[in-house]
Amino acid sequence: MNRSKEGFETTQKFVREAREAGAQYTIPRGMTKQEWLTRITLVDMYLANQDESLSSAGRALGINHNQSASNKYRATLMDYWIQSPNHIQNEFPPGSIQNIKLLPEDISIKRAATREYSPAYTLYVGIQDGKTVEQIKAETGQNFPADTRRIVRKWGADIPLSPLEDARLRNEAIGLALDTAVTPDDYRDAYQYISWTYLTHNMVGENARFVAFSTAIEEVHGVSTLLKESSAGEIEGLLVENDIPFIVREYMQPGRQVLNKVRAISRDHIDLFGEVTKQTYGRSDVKIEAGKVVSIY
User: Fold this and answer.
1) How far apart are the first and last CA of the chain?
2) Which residues of the chain have pLDDT under 70?
3) DSSP symbol at 84
4) In this predicted model, what pLDDT tens digit does every residue of 80-114 receive, in sequence order?
5) CB-based contacts of 14: which residues, under 8 Å, 6+ apart?
6) CB 125 within 8 A of CB 109
7) Residues 147-173: tens digit of each pLDDT
């Protein structure tokens, strides 16, 4: 998720327009009315109060794990997008709506200090005590991904760049990070440094690391699929909801006003991708020709 004042204002505007269009009145499949109400309330609390964090809003609603609150926030924004009319979807592409607040550094540090589990504050205190990142990891058993290190640098801590963050070492470091990734956050930490070129080069050949959404659907469901933007956005929502990492990259060809977009998952997650998308392809709005799904409306 992006963290900026402009991005957060975009999310606020999107939710306001989606709700005016009635997106909140459609309960997503497989969800109870109470679950949907909880998610709507989480988004409303977070967007309406400048001092509210996702974790504090989540705790107030009985969502006690920070990542769970974050996942529900992102998934609800995608549900709003899916249930919005075309003109709102066109105005707000999926990649533009998942934004969070940019808080002043002093407020961020104070909030982090009050949390029972805050890797950023743990890292900040350790660096202030003169320890290295590796020493703090060894002492605490905590992992400090790039987003955490970036936050702590903004707080004024002096932390050297990791190989992933160093452009000279990045491609080799990405490969190593993907080879050793275990948790969803491990993958996301590597994904944020992957360029369009690296992604597309690693989607071909016997040792391809990544699979495009449409290719994954064909492999796991045996159907040939032409994904429209709304359908791709729906799949993104399913992946977010189930905490399955994915990567989206956009590229504007020189001299052409054509935006190319690639959505992909790691080959490590293709079975999980199949599980969360299997119900989509038994729907009545799927067009089938010669025994194969050819488009989704």
Assistant:
1) 28
2) 1-3, 65-67, 102-117, 163, 167-168, 253-258, 280-297
3) S
4) 999 999 999 999 988 888 777 765 555 556 556 65
5) 77, 80, 81, 88, 91, 92, 96, 97
6) no
7) 788 888 877 788 877 767 776 677 888
Contact (CB, 8 A) for 192 and 152: no
Q: For residue 285, what are its two tokens? A: 């709005």
User: What are 258's two structure tokens?
Assistant: 């054509």
Contacts with 231 (C-beta within 8 Å, 6 or more apart), sequence order: 280, 296
HEC per residue, 61-78: CCCCCHHHHHHHHHHHHH
What is the pairing mode between strands 247-252 and 210-212? unpaired
Q: 30 burial class (0-12, 13-18, 19+ CB within 10 angstroms)?
A: exposed
- Is the separation of the CB atoms in 217 and 245 below 8 Å? no
Q: pTM (2 decimals)?
A: 0.47
Crossing angle for the helix pair 119-128 and 133-140, to the nearest 10 degrees: 120
